Automatic annotation (TrEMBL):
CDD domains: MhqN-like. SUPFAM superfamilies: FMN-dependent nitroreductase-like (SSF55469). GO terms for molecular function: oxidoreductase activity. This is Nitroreductase family protein. Residues 14-192 form the Nitroreductase domain. Keywords: Oxidoreductase. Belongs to the nitroreductase family. Coiled coil: none annotated. It comes from Cytobacillus kochii. The keyword Oxidoreductase applies. InterPro entries: Nitroreductase, Nitroreductase-like.
Length: 212
């Protein structure tokens, strides 16, 4: 018998999440609360704690008008959501390594000798990686962040929808980001559902697990 008790509130959040496409267009999430949601989602794990996710928050009519031609068949989310969150991976996230690890030492969360050792490893390896490897790492880290953001949003009482159907080759340039450095990962819409998302079916554990 396992002495493991799941937090029922968290399980309810996971089970209750739906992909919502039609939001209440009159409802607006404040920038303060959106910043709080992003900060909480940023507690997600990442490779070497580089936190290589970056978010462009599109929450103005002008921004949404600029985004609309790029989201293909996802215009309903763009038109009705409180915001569209453009998730990018920063392939040069290691440039923040010293700031991250120095702050950890200042806050007493890491001994100086550990910082020195880890920084030496990160700054000797990460810049030499191929562009393909940097993109892969950034996408994995940003996907962990995006999933956590969807659950955090749900805990705040909001709904989300992850999207891959957009013009990835135009997204960074359209929103004035360095195309060589920032790789588009996904777009998340966020807001209050006007039309509830439907419950979807999941494959059973025996179909997705391999026990050896």
């Amino acid at each position: 018998m396992f002495n493991h008790i799941l937090n029922n509130d968290f399980v309810d959040i996971v089970k209750g999440r739906r992909s919502v496409r039609h939001y209440d267009e009159d409802f607006k999430i404040s920038q303060e609360e959106l910043s709080e949601i992003i900060a909480e989602a940023s507690l997600a794990p990442s490779s070497a704690n580089m936190q290589s996710w970056r978010v462009v928050v599109v929450d103005t009519p002008e921004g949404k008008e600029k985004l609309k031609p790029l989201v293909r068949f996802n215009t309903l989310q763009n038109d009705t959501s409180s915001a569209m969150l453009l998730i990018f991976g920063d392939t040069k996230g290691y440039l923040y390594a010293e700031e991250i690890f120095n702050t950890a030492v200042e806050q007493g969360k890491m001994p100086p000798e550990v910082r020195n050792s880890q920084l030496e490893t990160i700054l000797s390896i990460y810049p030499t990686l191929s562009k393909e490897m940097k993109v892969e790492i950034a996408k994995i880290d940003s996907s962990l962040f995006a999933m956590q953001l969807m659950l955090v949003a749900r805990a705040h009482g909001y709904d989300t929808n992850p999207m891959a159907g957009f013009e990835a080759d135009q997204l960074a340039k359209t929103f004035e980001l360095d195309e060589e450095r920032y790789t588009p990962v996904m777009i998340l819409s966020i807001g209050k559902a006007k039309v509830a998302g439907y419950e979807s079916i999941r494959l059973s554990t025996d179909k997705i697990s391999f026990w050896r």
